[in-house]
Every structure is written in structure tokens, then in C-alpha cells.
Amino acid sequence: MRVILAQPRGFCAGVERAVEIVELAIRKYGPPVYVRHEIVHNKRVVEKLRSIGARFVDELDEIPDGAITVFSAHGVAQKVADDAGLRDLPVIDATCPLVAKVHREGQRYAEQGYDVILIGHEGHPEVEGTRGRIPGGVHLVSSVDDVDRLRVRDPAKVSYITQTTLSVDDTRVIIDKLKQRFPQVAGPDVRDICYATQNRQQAVHLLAQHVGVILVVGSPNSSNSNRLREIAAEMGIASYLIDTADDINPAWFANVDAVGVTAGASAPEELVQEVLNRLGQITPVEIENLEGVEENVRFKLPEMLWDVAGSPYGRMGRPQPRESERNSAPTPAE
Ligand code: SF4
User: Fold this and answer.
1) Which positions in this protein are listed as binding isopentenyl diphosphate (predicted)?
2) pLDDT(331) > 60
3) 63 CA distance to ligand 1 middle (Å)
């Protein structure tokens, strides 16, 4: 059986940075380091960090006074940041700079008197963080039907922002509906959907043209991983979201010549390698790499960790811009 690997796949710059922040904080301050929510949505990543001294909690009141506190890559509401400030908790913020950018965008719209619509999924931590950063709150929409139900103060003063990990195609449909209802709506089109999400979705579109089954390595609560599986399914390809190689069912590959493998932005490459090993146990495999975008985005670490990291960019090093890099909108130095 041929096994074709998507390019790009797996860790994005925001996840790489968040994981490194926790590791460096443990190295600098010693365990335990408290992390509010899963640092990123991946079971293996969370288990590994737990094994070196990270303590994952749901709320700040589970954190002892004075303990080093990390906010996850998904970002937090202003109230959470304020509460941490009131308790003088030493906070290291691992919010992805691209999520923080969406916060600022929404805040600007709110300051200018717009009703702000957030396109995203109810209950996702990024959505909770974003809606809690925008004064006056947001209207959350997840579907075209939600757009029909919207009630705004002034239809001529409406804006939207989006969660970073949505399906580009589904989001366009919702944006088109918003434009129909509110012809003057202001918004970023799909530019809030981050470079990593867009690149991984584009790679799955390509992969689906070559294979009969697609395996997406990612945890069930990972938004961007779910979108990858859905995109493959929408293209008529049997697709499965697997947390680890143990989730693989050999029956999926009956009568299949080629299987595609990709990984969500929070899934480490070691899980992909374990999947390849497992496939090799099921049947002899030939592994190929699909051509695709080479990513070169890096985000600076928080300054308080530069001493232990050895450089502002940590183990990933300073970015070297490449002509070929699509979607180079994020500012690496942010
Ligand atoms: S998926 Fe995008 S927004 Fe989310 S952490 Fe990665 S780079 Fe940041």
C-alpha cells in the first residue's frame, strides 16, 4: 500500500511556541508550573508536559498563590487576565500571536462602535477567550442559519472576525451570507483563519486527489484537526481522526491502494511516525511525501524566557523568509 504524507502537516508556529514556553518555564522556575487549560489540544503533548512538571487546571482558583501560571495558546478572556493580575500571579502568556491579533482586530471594531460578529464554534476555548476580550461582547455565529437570526443595533455598523482554525470554504459561505444581510459589513474575509490552518487544509485538498483513505492525526477536541477530516469527507474520501496509532482499524484499508496521512496543527510528528510504523505492521507500505508549502513562520518567545531559551526565537531559531512561502501575512517578529 502507498502511504502519502501531506505537506505541511503537524505543529504550527503557535503550538511550537506554546509547548516551548511551558518547557522553558519549568526549566527556569522549576516544577510545578500551572497551565490554565490544555496548552494545546493534543493528549500526547499534554501528557509529556505533565510528566516534566506541568499542572493543567480549568480555572485560576485551582492555582496556589505565587505559582507560575501559563495561559494556553488559545488565549483567555480579559477577566481571566484581570483576575490573575488581582492575585499577583506571575503569568506567562502563551496565547498564539495570531489569536492575539484577532483580539485586537475585534477590539478596534468595538471601539469604533460596530456590533462585532465572531464566526466560530461555541464552547471552544479560543472563542471564549476572544469573546471575553471584546468590550460589549460579540454575536457568535457558527452557521448560515445563525446569521439569519442575528439582531444588531445598526445594520450599517456591523463587523466580523473569525476563529483562526475554521474551514476556509465553510467560512466563506457564512461571510457571503453576512454580506447579503449587511451589505456594509466590515471584516477580514478569511484572513483571520491562520496560515497554518489554511496551508493544512490546502494540503488535504491535494492529498484527497491521490488516495482512497485519509488519516488525520489529532485529538477529538482539536478544531483544526476536525476541519481537516471534514474537508476530506466532503471530497468523498473516507477519513478518520485518530489520536494515536492505536486508534487505527485495519479494516479501513480493505481495497485501498493508497492512504493519505496528515496531522493537525497541535499533533507532534512523533505521532505521525508511530502511525507509519503501525501501517507497516498491517501491510507492507511505500511512503511518499506530497509536494507542498514549506512553512517558515516563527514567533518570538516572551522576553522573560529568552535567557533560558538562549535566543528570542528559542529552538526553532530565527526565521529565514522564503519567496515560496504562501500566506506570509503573520509577522514573524510579533
Ligand atoms: S493553529 Fe494558527 S492560530 Fe492556532 S496556534 Fe497554530 S498558528 Fe496560532
Assistant:
1) 41, 74, 124, 222-224, 266
2) no
3) 26
